[in-house]
## 1
Amino acid sequence: MEYKYLEFSMPEDGIGLLTLSAPQSLNALNSGMLRELDDFVQHVPSEVRVLLVTGAGSKAFVAGADISEMQPLDEAGALEFARLGSSVFRKIELLPVPVIAVMNGYALGGGCELALACDLRITSERSRFGQPEVGLGIIPGFSGTVRLTRIVGPAFAKELIYTGKTIDASEAYRMGLVNAVVPAEQLMEEALQWARRIMANSRVAVSYAKRSIQESADLPMDDAIALENRYFAQCFLAEDQKEGMTAFLEKRKPRYK
Ligand code: COA
């Protein structure tokens, strides 16, 4: 598929960089961009071990869902739009590799929801965050009420969603919404360093860790623990476990394939 709104590159071996670009609307998510994202997540190149997602330009990560596209919708159209965005974000969340949101500016509404579907969020000091939907007469529609609550807890989720207020990066860090805050000019290098750090570990183990964290969140405690036990055991089917432990015992760095 030819992409109008997405750019993909690999700045380093194993690291994919996906850039969302709709400059006229601060990278707002329209249905065309969402369909491209849906296609992309189903065709992530197999050599990608960590995927970085960012917004084009220096002002916005993603300034929300596209308000001009939503304004004329009726109920059926709104349901379709919400289902499209939510299903794409769920596919991002379930990708077998870690996904890092590299937040280079406004992350509002659907932009904040996109970041919440990523595994980790690294932001520039200049970014602003919020779920301003209630001010537009709607609620978050791309699973924001669900994921924000799970990530920052119900008290902060309700604070952000009911007030619709915009917060700065230090406040977002205090709430646990983002993992790290760095000066704008260091943002991409910081994200690359996080990716390199992850890639120094066993690919198999990182992938099982992601599955266990993701899938256990929806299970009762005993089932979640049983699931982790199974994924732990499955690590022993892969070469990486022998290599990792042998390397430790031989006092050397592991050489993962
Ligand atoms: N949907 C559609 N267009 C958007 C948009 C969105 N979510 N966010 C920004 N844009 C457009 C603006 O309409 C403007 O277009 P124009 O140049 O044709 O007038 C352009 O992007 C630049 O935005 P502007 O508002 O002029 O920039 P700003 O620096 O004054 O303000 C924001 C930046 C992000 C604070 C402001 O654009 C904003 O509040 N956007 C909407 C955020 C939102 O409510 N998102 C949730 C949607 S559910």
## 2
Amino acid sequence: MLSAIFNDMWNLNYSSTSEIAEVLSSHSLAMTKKFGQNFLISPEARERIVSLIKPQEGDEIWEIGPGLGAITHLLLSRGASVKAFEIDHGFAAILRSEAFADEDFTLIEGDALETLFSLPPTFSSIVGNLPYNVGSEIIARLIERVYLPPVMVFTLQKEVADRMAATPGSPDYSSFSVLTQLDYINTRAFIIKAGAFYPAPNVDSAVVVMKRRNESLVPPDERTLFLSMVRALFSQRRKTIRNNLLSSKAYSSRGKEFIEKAFASASLSGNERAEKLSFAELIALMRALEA
Ligand code: SAM
């Protein structure tokens, strides 16, 4: 009882909602909905996540949103060095001065959307039970800023995980699928039911493993152009690629005739929906539009 608070050693039972609640109340803290704070109280799920990261002695693992350290302590116990990015100042104080003060642990306090990119990308891998409100934004930014470790393992809303692992033509395929598959092969590893979190969210979650490709699907010098074309093509899901390009500022100025020629030279009709196009078709269209 209250072991995490009164012992010298930090040994909070991360599966016990009453111990978590006591630690929070003894620090006058409360969970904040706006930061997507749902602690993972299932020990099996935590172990499975860590086994997907495969931490090795000496690895530098970046963790986004450590909370009270439910996953962090497992990574540290495997000999990894952990850099954690946490926005909640109350949690940050506990992590820094009580939980992991004597460990190979660095805490970067603040909004991960900013703080991640204030450091050079020295990571071996990135892991995070991501807050619902900014999870996909964080992943998008890592990719756009080319912060690309060999492996990333994220816990996300199931529907976001489904989009990341979707194939062209499936109902879940979106511009986020294209963005996250550019450099990675994404696999939905397992589902975590809402009841495995405290407090329980409204929806189930899933763990996605992102394994970096040997080579990006789009050459580095065409990456920016590719991503801006993808944004234009997917801007309105119900519209055809013709209508999306014609209503985009970047492409409409080139004229309808030019755009029709580009479709023809990419072997497209223009009546397709963006979510049906493969990477090869998207790349062919990008090149035709620049011809
Ligand atoms: N890792 C813990 C676990 O699995 O039990 C907590 C996960 S909880 C879903 C998300 C964590 O991300 C919370 O600790 C929250 O304060 C933190 N967080 C939310 N928004 C953040 C942001 N923009 N930058 C950094 N951390 C954030």
